Amino acid sequence: MSNLLKARILWLGAVILGCSTTASAIELPRWQVLEFEEQAFWATAYSRIELPRPEAGDNYWEFSADSSVPGNSEQVSLRFDPATGQLLSRERLSKGKRDQRLKSFDYEEDFVLRERRSPESKTQAVPLEWPLDSRKQLAYPPAATELAVTNPYLLLLLADRLQAQGPGATLEVLVHTDLNFYRARLTSGNGIPVNANYRLTGDGQKNGTRETTAVALRVKPEGELAEEDDFSLFGLKGEIILLFDRHTGLPLQVRGDAPRIGATELNLKSATLRVPAS
């Protein structure tokens, strides 16, 4: 990472958090692994996300996500600045009924380096050894000088922090998908009762009505889109609401619009809490 990029990340952290931006000063969320699921008609949507404890001395965090709907799946791995959500690198392995591809992104000071790879027929090579299809440099939008550039999955982590600040707290970031950039505004508020039913690893099934806090997510293109609109969070589009247990802070539900289905609720099905550092 260049010194200029480090300075930019530290400045963004000071603006967003108003406090120290060293990795050791940022608290990890209570959860380490979350699984969400929703069944609608013939389809089941599933997502598993994990945020492991960083190694001592690391100035970045890592985040992984596995998501699937019938006929399609993706595995995403992220490295990012913990203070701001600013991406450092990203890999996305996607698989469909007929093809699969690996896209990798390096977030440099002045541009995003995007590479796409796809396998040769009947290859046994690992994805990083697949032939390179394309390599391009993507320019940041002008707002990237002031706003962190993050990933849709990391909006859950940012919303987790925001809801803890209480109603009325807001945050704006840029979200990078493939070739497109979006401006996302997060606003915290009071939620609605949610009928929770999830498994807490090591502590059995948890169910019942929970009072919640909420974070509303509004997203719009940042400038002209380079390709078809492709923003979604856990496959949901439109105005997205994230609902958090007011007592435990766990994200219980994500609400939005699903393609061909309409209004959809993605519910927490399993959670693994973080083991305290020794």
Structure description:
It contains two helices and 17 strands. With 278 residues, the chain is mostly beta strands. It has one domain (3-273). The chain has a 17-stranded mixed β-sheet that branches. A hairpin with a 6-residue loop joins strand 4 (72-80) and strand 5 (87-95). The chain is globular and about 50 Å long. The relative contact order is 0.15.
Summarize the structure.
The chain is mainly beta and 278 residues long.
Secondary structure blueprint with pairings:
Layout: H1 3-17, E1 31-40, E2 43-50, E3 61-69, E4 72-80, E5 87-95, E6 100-107, E7 111-117, E8 132-139, E9 149-150, H2 154-163, E10 170-176, E11 181-190, E12 194-200, E13 204-210, E14 212-221, E15 237-245, E16 251-258, E17 262-273
Parallel strand pairs: 9-10, 12-17
Antiparallel strand pairs: 1-2, 1-17, 2-3, 3-4, 4-5, 5-6, 6-7, 7-8, 10-11, 11-14, 12-13, 14-15, 15-16, 16-17
